[in-house]
Specification:
55% of the residues lie in helices and 0% in strands. The chain is mostly helical. Helix 4 (78-89) runs parallel beside helix 6 (116-122).
Length: 166
């Protein structure tokens, strides 16, 4: 789970401020990269505007999950990103849900936060996913629900029993 842009942002660097080159229909990105190509997949990981992702959800774009990951990597405000992540996590499409899990992992790693809605939706997903691990690693444990504590403590106990003298 890495990403050059995401790693730089986590260290405090971000994109240059500017008006961007979005289009009137809300399909562009604020960083000047132009409109995402929903058919050809170009610029989807560069999306940094929640309104672009929301419009894609409303149009039923099949690759909206990729844009949610891009939003998680490129947008500085987790409060604007997490509703889009939640929408991906509640999608009927299995691939979009999987991409929502990945996006949530990025938000946890880059912003060290999560909201209750995303945690409720994540609980429906199989344990041991990317978001489980990154939430546990990067979000203060006091903000995490008991079911995630149980998962990680059980995992830690089993690991310790397998290797008692490490």
């Amino acid at each position: 789970m890495g990403g050059g842009d995401g790693e730089a942002r986590a260290a405090g660097a971000g994109p240059a401020e500017g008006a961007g080159t979005g289009t009137a229909d809300g399909t562009g990105t604020a960083d000047g990269a132009g409109a995402p190509d929903w058919r050809g997949r170009s610029n989807l990981l560069g999306v940094d505007r929640p309104d672009v992702v929301l419009a894609a959800f409303e149009r039923g774009e099949p690759r909206v999950g990729e844009a949610v990951i891009g939003l998680a990597l490129n947008h500085d405000d987790p409060a604007a990103v997490l509703p889009m992540v939640a929408r991906a996590l509640e999608s009927a499409d299995r691939e979009i849900r999987r991409q929502g899990v990945i996006a949530l992992a990025h938000v946890a790693r880059l912003h060290r936060t999560v909201d209750r809605r995303c945690l409720e939706l994540l609980r429906r997903c199989p344990r041991g996913n990317e978001a489980d691990d990154d939430l546990w690693s990067f979000v203060p444990h006091r903000e995490l629900p008991p079911w995630l504590w149980r998962h990680h403590l059980r995992e830690r106990l089993v690991d310790r029993l397998r290797r008692p003298f490490d």
